[in-house]
Amino acid sequence: MWMISPVALAGLVIKFLGRSIGGVIGFLMGMLMLALCALTLTGRFAPPQWPYDLANHFVAQMAACQALALLITLFRRPSTFLGWIIAALTLGCFALNLIRLAPYAPLPAYWQTPTPAARPVAPSSGPTLSILHLNAQGVRNQRMDLALAYIRERQPDIVALSEFPASWEKAFTDAPELKSWPYRLVGRAQIGVFSKRPLRQVRYDFLNAPTANQTWVQFETKIGSEPVTLVVTHLPIPAIPESFARERAILSRIAAQRERYRPAWLLVGDLNMTPWSCLFQAFLSQSGLRDSQERRGVQASWPVWPFLPAWATPILGVPIDHVLVSDRLAVVARSLTPPVGSDHLGVWVVARPISSPDKIQSTRMGSGVRPSAASRPVHAVNKGSKK
């Protein structure tokens, strides 16, 4: 009778378990890598429709997971030809995601492409406009004091708020901290604007109804002597095909109205999409705007949940709050606010006009264009504005 010592038996068991566990880990790793590749290729090459576009919102996270999976795979060294094929496919998709992330890499100035939105600008090189955008998260956020404290500290020229309910409207309207922002647009579609500078040519537009997530407001102010148009909106969440279609329609309408805007203009708001969305990229092409986030890193603004640690949002979050600028504006600074009670971080941007010898002769907003009933100027909501 064969006798096996306890030590030898334990060694056989450990060897068997090691092979089994290694096989399970290898199988799960292969499945994960294939899933990441499928999402990458779907977002990049599938038709620009819902739900394919949802994969585009997580390019940074997919790239990070692919890098980690490749390191683990190369350390373990695939034992089969199929394993090497999966690793090679993952490497290609990882490179594809890196290419899409490249415009947001904070590279040294001598490597940067000279687009106005990304061009480094000295803060003292002329008059500027500072803008703060914040999704207040409606009635679920009662920490108005945090937002007011940040506004008092940073003193932005214009504060634009979305999900701005009646409770926030009352608190902000009555707040002594905001006496320096007398020009106000409130009371429509949960969008609020508080400005130190006069707001002119105010116009509200909407898609199907003047409600939240279907309305945008445009107005004109000045940076020094340069007229500038701002458009503020809050797009719906693309959770269903109908919301995705509304996003596309609203952005198309805003882009189609660009002839009403000054050559220097901005779009500000919670767009509920990342820079890699097919809708976002199509809008940039149609409107001629640039992302103020370029060359400043991926600045994830959502989600900010109480149970998440502070480091989680930059890693797990996505940049869905935006300030987009035309080629007539250069971005001096861009950063995110600290948490202010909302599930979003606010976006702080400072921009200035770009001097040009071939200054474009602009046309006043709406001149030569007969506005529809849905887009006629509304003056009653411009509370506190000075004529």
Shape: elongated
- Biggest pleated-sheet summary: 6 strands, mixed
- The total of helices stands at 8
Q: What spatial order of strands do you see in the largest sheet?
A: 3-4-2-1-12-11
Order of helices and strands: HHHEHEHEEEEEHEHEHEEE
DSSP E strands, number:
12
- Percent strand equals 15-25%
General description of the model:
This protein has 387 residues and is an alpha+beta fold. The chain has helices spanning 6-45, 59-76, 81-101, 144-154, 166-174, 241-256, 278-287, 312-316; strands at 129-135, 158-162, 183-188, 191-195, 200-206, 215-223, 226-234, 265-270, 290-291, 321-325, 329-336, 347-353. Strands 3-4-2-1-12-11 form a six-stranded mixed beta sheet, with no helix packed on it. α6 links the parallel β7 and β8 (265-270). The longest helix has 40 residues, at 6-45.
